[in-house]
Amino acid sequence: MRTVYLGTSAFAASVLRALAASDHRPALVLTRPDRPRGRGRRLASPPVAGLARELGLDLDQPTSVNDEEARARIAAVAPEAVCVCAFGARIKEPLLSEYEMLNVHPSLLPRWRGAAPVERAVMAGDPETGVSIMRLTAGLDSGPVCAQAATRIEPGDTYGTLAERLERLGAELLIDVLSRQPGCVPQDEAGVTYAEKLTAEDRLLDPRRSAAELDRVIRALNPHIGAALELPGQERLGVWEARILQESANPEPGRLDLDGTVPVLGCSPGALELLSVQPAGRRPMSAADFLRGRRV
Description:
Shape: elongated
Low-confidence stretches: none
Largest sheet: 7 strands, mixed
Strand content: 25-35%
Mean pLDDT: 95
């Protein structure tokens, strides 16, 4: 099938790689413009742009995919389907209705519509999640679902390990839908939940919550965002990896014990051993290196 691909993120790039190796190789890829990134604020291309160049795919980076010029580029290809994955910008009329638009969404819709479905599923302690291929409509991830595939969320899963499985599932499912062209079924509105965009507040580890809850937050934000703990004096400590402490003699909630071999955060209830941390302005480091620096 002749396709056009719209995507931006690393997740979308992984799906694009598989699609490009299939019988549905995109005739055109559209992604977001290059943006300043990092401390030097140098222009950097989105992951999808870099991969499209590597694979020799025709690439466009319009300011808006809804502009007449971008729509004309798509029309010139005459696609039978437009595939969308983590594009990161709203697709509006008339483009929305001009083509069969298939969206790769990493959740079992109608659960976790919205911007951060993988992170929210881990944070909520869901036993499983998955990928849905749906027809894109004007509503937020509300279109009819053409296919779904599930995967278990393992106890030690981070965003990184779970997203890797979802990327594979999403690519396989999209290629299957393009090949079989199954019918699509409206979503059950009674089961809708929303995966709101992550904020700075979502990163903060509040020790008034349980150790199990905070462990899920840390895993949900690893390796791409990172959780954070507020220390005395308005200092923030990034937290990348932790382990729930099973011992009964835990620090009181909110206390960070720095006397052992690893920092231990008292929660309510339980406690967390902080295994990988990042002091402000520093690189991530092991707990042992962090404590060694504090004691010098």
